[in-house]
Design brief:
By secondary structure, this protein is of the alpha/beta class. Helix content is 32%, strand content 22%. The protein has helices at 78-85, 108-118, 134-144, 151-161, 176-189, 206-223, 234-237, 260-268, and strands spanning 36-45, 52-62, 67-71, 93-98, 101-102, 119-123, 194-198, 227-230, 242-247, 250-256.
């Protein structure tokens, strides 16, 4: 990977955190080890006059067994941050961690294996295999790793997302909401350390989107899952325990126990 390696901490890092919606104060760190995080993360495109800093010194952590949202205006760096945290993209400098694993120290093969076993993904486009039925899509990451998985856990996930009667149907025979439920179940099936969701309700109507968000919320509450979601939708963010706000590649605020109204009010102030 093309990461510029900072010194590797001898212990798991701590990350800036706050218990209110006020701007994050430097030096105010949490004592809990996060499920994932970044330390002084920078992602730079171009150089000279054309240089763009998609991430500009971001330090943040995301708690285990919590539902976190990342928000910000277009071009704020929110998707870039998620992709770097998930090991889908490389930083220019700084560090990203999942648990106590420093991603820059993994080679390509190790990173691929780590993502398959430790990380779940939910994308706006579903990314289902059209020739496989719902159950085969759900268990595909396990099969690719030569594993059968925990059948009791898979059954519980299927029940949680309400797919028991649709497992033999192919994606073309499922509604958009049902396809996204399959994607959610696929992300959960291997018991990943963390799930990253990129605008997971972007292609869904409001009712179906609410159902998917409710399933994700239940995955945290009932299954102990950790979810980090990028979204532009205040209503979607209201399902989270915490919202982190980015602007111009920097973290500018965070909010605990968000509501759609409080998130919308904060977003209106991005232009101030």
């Amino acid at each position: 990977m093309s990461l510029v390696d900072p010194p590797v901490p001898q212990t798991s890092p701590t990350f800036a955190a706050s218990s209110s919606s006020s701007p994050i104060a430097p030096g105010n760190v949490s004592t809990a080890t996060p499920a994932a995080g970044a330390v002084d993360a920078a992602k730079i495109y171009g150089s000279g006059d054309s240089e763009v800093r998609a991430l500009d010194g971001v330090t943040v952590g995301f708690e285990a067994a919590h539902f976190s949202a990342i928000m910000g205006p277009s071009g704020s760096g929110k998707s870039t941050l998620m992709h770097c945290l998930a090991g889908l993209d490389a930083l220019t400098s700084g560090a990203v961690y999942i648990g106590d694993t420093y991603l820059a120290k993994l080679n390509d093969r190790q990173l691929t294996e780590f993502r398959r076993t430790e990380v779940g993904f939910i994308f706006q486009a579903y990314n289902l295999i059209p020739t496989l039925n719902a159950y085969e899509n759900i268990t595909l990451p396990l099969l690719l790793g030569g594993q059968k998985g925990d059948q009791a856990w898979i059954d519980r996930v299927v029940e949680t997302v309400g797919l028991r009667n649709r497992l033999k149907h192919r994606p073309s025979e499922l509604s958009g909401g049902q396809q996204q439920r399959v994607a959610v179940a696929r992300a959960l099936a291997s018991k990943p350390r963390i799930i990253f969701a990129d605008e997971p309700t972007g292609n869904l109507d409001s009712r179906t989107g609410a159902e998917i968000l409710d399933f994700m919320r239940r995955a945290v509450n009932e299954l102990g899952q950790t979810i980090v979601m990028v979204t532009h939708d205040p209503q979607a963010a209201s399902y989270a325990d915490r919202v982190v706000f980015l602007a111009d590649g920097k973290i500018v605020d965070e909010m605990q126990e968000p509501t759609a109204e409080s998130v919308l009010d904060r977003m209106k102030r991005f232009g101030d």
